[in-house]
């Protein structure tokens, strides 16, 4: 089965662990009204707010109702955020391809397909409409928890279960570990009641306990293990003290990062946050420069200039090599050391000069060797229109931006725009490099800040990548 990458945005604040936010962003859900006598009420409400559990109606959860196999699978899919986003099928999958007792047009069909493709351990003869026992659901949950939480193998302290003789032998290990993890508790008389049907409330409580355990017991990554995008974002934000910063990455968050992708992400984050002072970069000769993505060139040259990364003895950067945690940590540490000795004096919210604007454009677009001819005072403050015009003109003159047909939009303050800049601004709007204000104005004469200019430059990079000739 082939896999493809999906473009997605990963927030640094949520990158600590994928289960910290176990669902999408939901509007406040109405409270269940049938949980007053349920001990796990608060846990169930927490899962409802996260979008993991839902009721038979918006107000009712039916806590004492038995959990079916299909409902159990859906709960696991929701809890571990499993999906098919990165999978490309040769033919459209059907639930019956994996479970013969399933129905392809049922409400649970997609959940069964998703679980099967993501290798959730389920019985081959699964009957979606059959009710789940406590031991069956606990076993499925623990196996999924250990797989997707990347938990290390443990030797659990064997607990005396009074009705252990009733537990299916193949489930006994999972149940012992479930007790050790705190996912389940024995009854007051020391029993598991393995063959009893599991209720919706009990299943939800087990899910909540599993997630809480995973939050507190993240598997330590080996220093020599290749870093994923999620781990890269976490490393960058925590090391640089930017835990509340949103980092936009257009790669699969579980993919392995390369030396160039990590270096580019690090330098772009520094630049966007305003932590990195403007420096005059003298490009060095990189022997394998032809292997570097042109859009990453500027970031890598800057990283070399500040001593964050070094070339090897052959003068190569090895851009496509996977980066280990140890190497990534060393690079970020080098950046921290540089920042300590090169404090940024310019306010990220202050207007940038023409010199800073040129440097920002050339480095963001990977054009460090490009000469940009501007007929303005290099120390003058740039406006929104002058920066946008310079950016678009640079894209076009460098060959990165082909001629495109632009349908002009109505700009409410168009009379304030220099006629020589109007074409560039219309082009930038068409490519979504810049946006108009809610009232339809552009504010062309307003000074542009480093933050705004960086956002526009990054939008330009995304726009260039999205053009048909760059796919």
Automatic annotation (TrEMBL):
<dbReference type="InterPro" id="IPR001119">
    <property type="entry name" value="SLH_dom"/>
</dbReference>
<dbReference type="Pfam" id="PF00395">
    <property type="entry name" value="SLH"/>
</dbReference>
<feature type="domain" description="SLH">
    <location>
        <begin position="158"/>
        <end position="221"/>
    </location>
</feature>
<feature type="domain" description="SLH">
    <location>
        <begin position="283"/>
        <end position="346"/>
    </location>
</feature>
<keyword id="KW-0732">Signal</keyword>
<feature type="signal peptide">
    <location>
        <begin position="1"/>
        <end position="27"/>
    </location>
</feature>
<feature type="domain" description="SLH">
    <location>
        <begin position="408"/>
        <end position="471"/>
    </location>
</feature>
<protein>
    <recommendedName>
        <fullName>SLH domain-containing protein</fullName>
    </recommendedName>
</protein>
<feature type="domain" description="SLH">
    <location>
        <begin position="27"/>
        <end position="90"/>
    </location>
</feature>
């Amino acid at each position: 089965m082939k896999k493809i990458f999906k473009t997605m945005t990963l927030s640094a604040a949520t990158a600590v662990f994928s289960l910290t936010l176990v669902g999408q962003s939901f509007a406040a859900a109405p409270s269940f009204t049938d949980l007053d006598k349920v001990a796990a009420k608060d846990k169930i409400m927490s899962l409802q707010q996260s979008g993991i559990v839902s009721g038979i109606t918006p107000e009712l959860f039916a806590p004492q109702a038995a959990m079916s196999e299909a409902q159990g699978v859906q709960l696991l899919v929701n809890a571990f955020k499993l999906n098919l986003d990165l999978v490309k099928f040769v033919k459209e999958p059907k639930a019956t391809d994996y479970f013969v007792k399933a129905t392809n047009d049922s409400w649970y069909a997609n959940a069964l397909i998703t679980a099967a493709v993501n290798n959730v351990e389920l019985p081959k003869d699964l009957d979606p409409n059959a009710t789940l026992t406590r031991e069956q659901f606990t076993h499925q949950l623990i196996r999924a928890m250990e797989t997707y939480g990347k938990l290390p193998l443990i030797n659990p302290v064997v607990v005396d279960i009074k009705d252990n003789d009733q537990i299916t032998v193949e489930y006994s290990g999972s149940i012992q570990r479930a007790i050790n993890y705190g996912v389940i508790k024995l009854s007051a008389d020391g029993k598991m009641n393995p063959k009893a049907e599991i209720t919706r409330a009990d299943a939800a409580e087990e899910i909540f306990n599993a997630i809480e355990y995973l939050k507190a017991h993240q598997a330590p990554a080996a220093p020599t293990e290749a870093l994923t995008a999620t781990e890269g974002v976490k490393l960058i934000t925590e090391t640089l003290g930017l835990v509340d910063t949103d980092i936009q990455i257009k790669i699969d968050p579980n993919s392995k990062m390369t030396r160039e992708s990590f270096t580019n992400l690090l330098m772009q984050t520094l630049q966007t946050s305003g932590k990195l002072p403007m420096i005059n970069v003298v490009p060095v000769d990189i022997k394998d420069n032809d292997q570097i993505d042109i859009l990453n060139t500027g970031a890598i040259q800057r990283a070399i200039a500040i001593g964050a990364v070094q070339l090897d003895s052959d003068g190569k950067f090895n851009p496509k090599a996977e980066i280990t945690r140890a190497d990534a940590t060393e690079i970020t540490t080098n950046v921290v050391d540089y920042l300590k000795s090169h404090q940024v004096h310019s306010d990220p919210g202050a207007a940038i000069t023409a010199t800073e604007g040129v440097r920002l454009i050339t480095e963001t677009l990977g054009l460090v060797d490009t000469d940009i001819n501007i007929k303005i005072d290099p120390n003058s403050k740039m406006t929104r229109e002058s920066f946008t015009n310079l950016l678009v003109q640079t894209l076009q003159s460098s060959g990165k931006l082909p001629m495109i047909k632009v349908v002009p939009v109505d700009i409410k303050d168009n009379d304030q725009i220099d006629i020589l800049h109007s074409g560039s601004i219309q082009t930038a709007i068409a490519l979504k490099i810049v946006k108009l204000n809610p009232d339809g104005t552009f504010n062309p004469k307003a000074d542009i800040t480093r933050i705004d200019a960086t956002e526009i430059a990054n939008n330009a990079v995304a726009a260039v990548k999205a053009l048909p000739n760059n796919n």
